[in-house]
Specification:
Residues 1-19 form the signal peptide. It is built from 6 helices and 6 strands, in the order αββαααααββββ. The chain has helices spanning 5-23, 102-106, 109-115, 121-126, 129-141, 153-170; strands spanning 39-43, 76-80, 184-188, 194-197, 204-205, 210-211.
């Protein structure tokens, strides 16, 4: 199974955008010059208060509006209809280190195994070195601002250390793969599937990972 840190990487980008919200931040690319021909200004789907065409829709940002949500670079962005809809990461002001291979040159498998030591079988299967490296390469393929490939080797090491520390806290030492149990008041539909709200402890089976 793959190490699903791709989601963590995107959420970290959003966390950085939230941090900018408290202090200011750069204009979105929509408001900072407008989108190119064939592109449209769309909202970041990770932010619940932002959409494409509503009252605070990003479509209003294209080329003119410089207040919410257009005044933060990760809330609205230019998007071509036939391209993957992936929000941009905040600009760091640091140059890409094109000669650096994150996993080959910095985060070796031995280093990873010394840091990531899940106590659960589920964690051992999910949080793997190969999966993390795949997630990093995949993320960097679609972002100008790279993860763990910007600046000097020392800067990359600090970024990886901060990320792994954050991920460890969020996953209880890489041993928990979800924050809440699945269902409360489970209801079996006509199709035989169980539909439910998040689980109460007494209804959750850790063996089958379903509600009873």
């Amino acid at each position: 199974m793959k190490f699903y840190f791709g989601t963590f990487l995107l959420l970290l980008s959003i966390s950085e955008a939230d941090a900018q919200t408290a202090t200011g931040g750069a204009l979105s690319e929509c408001a900072n010059g407008g989108c190119n021909l064939g592109e449209y200004c769309v909202g970041n789907s990770f932010l619940k208060d932002v959409d494409d065409t509503g009252e605070y829709g990003c479509s209003k940002c294209n080329g003119s509006r410089d207040w919410w949500p257009c005044n933060f670079e990760t809330t609205c962005f230019c998007h071509a209809l036939d391209a993957p809809r992936i929000p941009p990461a905040p600009r760091s002001g640091v140059n890409v280190n094109a000669a650096l291979d994150t996993c080959r040159d910095v985060l070796t498998e031995d280093t990873f195994n010394n840091i990531v030591q899940p106590t659960s079988e589920e964690g051992k299967q999910l949080f793997t070195y190969a999966g993390l490296c795949d997630a990093i390469y995949n993320y960097n393929q679609y972002h100008d601002e790279k993860f763990a490939q910007m600046g000097t080797v020392s800067q990359v090491r600090r970024e990886l250390a901060a990320f792994l520390s954050h991920a460890s806290v969020e996953t209880d030492g890489f041993s928990v793969t979800r924050e809440e149990h699945h269902c409360v008041n489970p209801i079996t539909g006509l199709d035989g599937n169980v539909y439910c709200m998040p689980c109460k402890e007494q209804f959750y089976s850790k063996e089958t990972k379903t509600c009873t």
